[in-house]
Amino acid sequence: MPRSISFTPGRLLTAALIAGLCALVAMRSPDLLAAMPPPVYHALIGGLWAAAATAVGTLPVLLSQSFSPRTYDAALGLGGGIMLAATSFSLVLPAIAASKGAGNTPMAASLMVGGGILLGMLVVMLLERLVRSDNVLDNSKSDQANTLVRAWLFVGAVAIHNIPEGMAIGVGYAGVDLSKANALTTGIAIQDIPEGMVVAMALRVAGYGRLFSAALGTLSGVVEPIGAVIGALLIEASAALLPWGLAGAAGAMLYVICHDVVPEAQRRGNYGTASFSLVVGFIIMMVLDTAMG
After folding, report:
1. 211-263 pLDDT, tens per residue?
2. Are 80 and 87 a contacting pair, CB within 8 Å?
3. Using CA atoms, how far apart are residues 184 and 169, in angstroms rounded to an integer?
4. Is the model's pLDDT at 3 over the cut of 70?
5. CA-to-CA distance for 10 and 1, rounded, in angstroms?
6. From the CB of residue 148, how many other CB atoms can be counted at a distance below 10 Å?
7. Contact partners, residue 188, CB within 8 Å, separation at least 6
8. Which GO MF term does the entry hold, naming one (predicted)?
9. What is the pLDDT of residues 172-185, one digit of tens each?
10. Interval 121-144 mean pLDDT
11. Residue of 40, 91, 256, 264 with fewest CB within 10 Å of its CB?
12. Residue 137, SS3?
């Protein structure tokens, strides 16, 4: 294997998958589950739900079925709207409240949260620079031996994108009430369904088998429960990190929405459908957060 890919995201993802599998095996011990702080336990379950939603998105490829581009864009827009409202009502507002609760003035609290949002965005941008997914599915200029490597590079890029989503789930369960955290997880999970589908479809179109494409699409979401547990543990370790954690998760989510979800939903020209679905998703989550949360 070439030296230039000796530390590929695929290998890092493999290590994460092994760690995740070991954690899931260890979870079979009732004593370990009982020893988990409730926020960490809920974060793990929420992360697993998000990973399961990614797996559900690969089913059309596995079953040789497909959705119309308009349906796909509507689902992506709906998930983006839900994530946007969840970012506002489940992360930003609780972050400001937590900062005020720590004794900061309204201005200081708002500036702190603003800084946390910028920090969260910069972290995701840095993670994305670790891997370039452009052209990794181009089979025209490479031999069969490198096909698997490029597939893992693509999955690694998507997995890196999923890390902040998983951490947002964990921070949510550690920092806000359970109903708001559940709403946030729901929004991320809905967005993960079309995300899993696009990963599997991209691999399938590039010539990979149905089972292989669906399997790698599913694996791209496995990092979410790992990220969720890490996010919850960080907040559990220090309550002072709560405003920063919530704000950082909000910044990561906003970047994902603006940089990935919205452009992808409108890439095929279904602007009206994607925008309408985004507004509907925002309204649904706003009602869940403010009237029923």
Report:
1. 888 888 888 888 899 889 988 888 888 777 888 888 888 888 888 888 878 88
2. no
3. 7
4. no
5. 13
6. 13
7. 50, 83, 86, 165, 168, 169, 224
8. zinc ion transmembrane transporter activity
9. 888 777 887 888 88
10. 61
11. 264
12. coil
Structure tokens at 243: 């405003």
Among the ranges 188-197, 272-281, 283-292, which has the highest mean pLDDT value?
272-281
Contact 292, 161 (CB under 8 A): no
Q: How far apart are the first and last CA of the chain?
A: 52
Q: Are 121 and 247 in contact (CB under 8 A)?
A: no
Supply 197's token pair: 């589908």
Q: What is the pTM of this model?
A: 0.65
Burial of 145 (0-12, 13-18, 19+ CB in 10 A): exposed
Owner of token pair 């920092």: 175
- Please name the residue that has the structure tokens 């336990």: 41
Residue keyed to tokens 């925008």: 275
